[in-house]
Amino acid sequence: MATVSDITVSAAINSLSALLFLVAFAILRLQPVNDRVYFPKWYLKGIRENPSTAGPYVKKFLNLDVRMYLRFLNWVPAALRMPEPELIDHAGLDSAVYIRIYLLGLLLTCLDPPVSLISNFHLPMLIILCSLKIFVPIALLAFGVLLPVNYTGRNFNTMSDDMKDLAFGEIDKFSISNVPPASKRLIAHILMAYVFTFWTCYVLYKEYKIVTDMRLHFLASQKRRADQFTVLVRNVPSDPDESVSEHVDHFFRVNHPDQYFLHKVVHNANKLAQMVEQKKDLQNRLIYYTNKHERNPNKRPTTKAGFWGLWGKKIDAIDYYTQEIEKLSKEELAERERVIDDPKSVVPAAFVSFRSRWGAAVCAQTQQTRNPTRWLTDWAPEPRDVYWNNLAIPFVELNVRKLIMAVALFGLTFCFMVPIAIVQTLANIEYIGKVLPFLKPLINKGSVKSFIQGFLPGIVLKIFLLVLPMILMEMSKIEGYVAFSALEARSAGKYHLFLLVNVFFGSIITGTALQQLKEFLKQSPSQMPETVGVSIPMKATFFITYIMVDGWAGVAAEILRVVPLVIYHLKNIFLVKTEKDRDEAMDPGSLLWPITEPRLQLYFLLGLVYSTVTPILLPFIIVFFAFAYLVFRHQVINVYHQKYESAASYWPGVHHRILIGLIISQITLLGLLSTKEAANSTPLLLALPILTLWFHRFCKKRFESAFSKFPLQDAMIKDTLERATEPQLDLKAYLKDAYMHPVFKGGEVAMMDVEEEDDDDHYLVATKRSSRRGSQAGTQEGSPEDRTGGIYAAV
């Protein structure tokens, strides 16, 4: 078990690491050669220039202006200076609301600190203003009430006489485990549980209302976008007489005669997209070897013909890649023509655009036919949010895919208990020493023990979790979601479940079993729950070390951007020839929602659970939220470039997961009190989860519809304003290529063959079928709107 000295060692290592990362960042960001790494967002907006050609820089690579080094911390007030409305215009609502999650604890009278205060860099006062909304008030109450109650309980002194092998540290004396069973002191924990629950729900309600208003205002004031006029139609029924394109056109001309405008069918171009990516990779290799030859004209570069150029016969690299590109270009052209001409490449889905936002809202938010499994409509993702590969998946496969991935997630989650047990072995290494005495000489060394228990468990767990988000993202892709935003939301949900089961419950269960191994073996079954109840709060020391590794040093490493820095300079050396190439070499990255949001939820969970159990953990969480807010605000302003804008559609999930953490904290306290002979408190605490579930249901009915539906009133207002301010708007030119597959854009053949023209002069819908009433096809269809010829009436 980690002691105070172990925690001190961990705090020293992680604080020093964070400080070194910040100092390195402050220096590297000032160098002209790194400007595109640390300020790519401004380059993408066309606002920033290369500092090597302007300003007080003496050399191209090194900044020799001493005055700037004296102000190397000016990035801190700069990150805080931009007000929230400007941040939304600059980075989008998704980024601005993400930053608000860190501020979900801000105990503020004003969300934006005075500019004069920031300019004068009164950082201590600024941090006081930016106190965390949820956890600072909870921490103040917990430290003022619960910490003295726990520390003066002296239960460990009594229990150590009866349980000789019971191990506890100085920090554990601040936990509820130090309160004797059936003590009146437990009333304080029950009262604080109510106070913490009501305060958390109050803050969540206010934040939900604010974010909902922000979303509606953002949508109302947002510039015209193609997805405002477009719906995605899936599971289009087959028709023996008409193609998918003709079928879609007829259906919407009849059922949305006044609002339907045009459509774009979806082609299965996955193989073509792979060819395009492969060709791009070959072109990068050709550029690399061409640049290499230009630097040394006397020697032709060579490569090997085997896999990735690692083995095989040596050949001329420039000639080889030139021939490969020419060969692949011919195959690409043939595949492009096949996709366009082959009716089998068209999948039963289409992007249908309407003449107004109101018409799109009506279609997206209503059932189209009597058969609820056909002609399924939903809001189309914005064009850059579309994950084209999954549009080719047959709709009937989706439920099967989701079932398979659910089973796989279950297996993966519980298989990961093995590395969790390894981590907990490191966290409880002295108990392993009792079982394996030959390790005692190593364990008894104070410095080694402090390093292993205070730092190593957190870093090992961090390493184990690095690969997991990539696996979960691939699982979400297999499930068939058609938007990057949906993929990231599903991956975040899986990762949150994984952290909840493995990192939280897994660490507690495996850690408790190892920590009190002999007690588990000796005690009768009736005594084991008491041992578990005593041991659960004592795992706070492990989570403290994890917070410092992941939340302190990990966040500081995020701002340094070591990997993008190295990759950019490698590309700059081997691939860049022009300024355009240099811009393409930038990797601004994004918020990585599937990783960062579940991590935030883990900290919310730890703070809520241990607020009444071991409040000494709360300051470490507060430091994380304050530090992460500063770092990620800087990154959002200067670095990250989001791939899409969902207008904070993810917020209901954030709210839901915080409430899950709150309910777990209530159940945990209920279980702990049951081991302390406080059965009379059970009815009082049972009310808390019930009230929290009622609160969740209330917020769901009150706010959630604003995140899935667009009010018809707002849609009509935007349409009316647009018609009044832009009467000559050519909406057809704006929409016709918005949802064209990226591999077709820029190609003349694609523009001619893929575009679905709309004819405004069609007052009578033409159809190839003379009559299908009573036909075999009609009988099989089974839905009146698909099997009658008369349904395609005059428009």
TrEMBL record:
<dbReference type="InterPro" id="IPR003864">
    <property type="entry name" value="CSC1/OSCA1-like_7TM"/>
</dbReference>
<feature type="domain" description="CSC1/OSCA1-like cytosolic">
    <location>
        <begin position="228"/>
        <end position="390"/>
    </location>
</feature>
<feature type="transmembrane region" description="Helical">
    <location>
        <begin position="451"/>
        <end position="474"/>
    </location>
</feature>
<keyword id="KW-0812">Transmembrane</keyword>
<feature type="domain" description="CSC1/OSCA1-like N-terminal transmembrane">
    <location>
        <begin position="7"/>
        <end position="108"/>
    </location>
</feature>
<feature type="domain" description="CSC1/OSCA1-like 7TM region">
    <location>
        <begin position="401"/>
        <end position="673"/>
    </location>
</feature>
<feature type="transmembrane region" description="Helical">
    <location>
        <begin position="678"/>
        <end position="695"/>
    </location>
</feature>
<feature type="transmembrane region" description="Helical">
    <location>
        <begin position="495"/>
        <end position="514"/>
    </location>
</feature>
<dbReference type="GO" id="GO:0005227">
    <property type="term" value="F:calcium-activated cation channel activity"/>
</dbReference>
<feature type="transmembrane region" description="Helical">
    <location>
        <begin position="123"/>
        <end position="147"/>
    </location>
</feature>
<dbReference type="Pfam" id="PF14703">
    <property type="entry name" value="PHM7_cyt"/>
</dbReference>
<keyword id="KW-0106">Calcium</keyword>
<dbReference type="Pfam" id="PF13967">
    <property type="entry name" value="RSN1_TM"/>
</dbReference>
<feature type="region of interest" description="Disordered">
    <location>
        <begin position="767"/>
        <end position="795"/>
    </location>
</feature>
<keyword id="KW-0406">Ion transport</keyword>
<protein>
    <submittedName>
        <fullName>Calcium-dependent channel, 7TM region phosphate</fullName>
    </submittedName>
</protein>
<keyword id="KW-0813">Transport</keyword>
<feature type="transmembrane region" description="Helical">
    <location>
        <begin position="403"/>
        <end position="427"/>
    </location>
</feature>
<dbReference type="InterPro" id="IPR027815">
    <property type="entry name" value="CSC1/OSCA1-like_cyt"/>
</dbReference>
<feature type="transmembrane region" description="Helical">
    <location>
        <begin position="602"/>
        <end position="632"/>
    </location>
</feature>
<keyword id="KW-0407">Ion channel</keyword>
<keyword id="KW-1133">Transmembrane helix</keyword>
<comment type="similarity">
    <text>Belongs to the CSC1 (TC 1.A.17) family.</text>
</comment>
<feature type="transmembrane region" description="Helical">
    <location>
        <begin position="7"/>
        <end position="28"/>
    </location>
</feature>
<dbReference type="InterPro" id="IPR032880">
    <property type="entry name" value="CSC1/OSCA1-like_N"/>
</dbReference>
<dbReference type="InterPro" id="IPR045122">
    <property type="entry name" value="Csc1-like"/>
</dbReference>
<dbReference type="GO" id="GO:0005886">
    <property type="term" value="C:plasma membrane"/>
</dbReference>
<feature type="transmembrane region" description="Helical">
    <location>
        <begin position="653"/>
        <end position="672"/>
    </location>
</feature>
<keyword id="KW-0472">Membrane</keyword>
<dbReference type="Pfam" id="PF02714">
    <property type="entry name" value="RSN1_7TM"/>
</dbReference>
<feature type="compositionally biased region" description="Polar residues">
    <location>
        <begin position="773"/>
        <end position="782"/>
    </location>
</feature>
<feature type="transmembrane region" description="Helical">
    <location>
        <begin position="91"/>
        <end position="111"/>
    </location>
</feature>
<feature type="domain" description="CSC1/OSCA1-like N-terminal transmembrane">
    <location>
        <begin position="128"/>
        <end position="207"/>
    </location>
</feature>
<feature type="transmembrane region" description="Helical">
    <location>
        <begin position="186"/>
        <end position="205"/>
    </location>
</feature>
